[in-house]
Design brief:
Blueprint (H helix, E strand, L loop, with lengths): L1 H6 L5 H23 L1
Length: 36
């Protein structure tokens, strides 16, 4: 559901940038956990 909330920002170029940053942050956290 959190991801869906972020999709709400997908409205305009700025929205895409916000979603991209959030998605990358979540992806980095997942990769870091796998490192451990």
């Amino acid at each position: 559901s959190i991801f869906i909330d972020h999709l709400a920002f997908v409205k305009g170029e700025n929205g895409w940038k916000i979603v991209s940053k959030v998605w990358h942050l979540e992806k980095e956290e997942t990769e870091n956990k796998k490192t451990y």
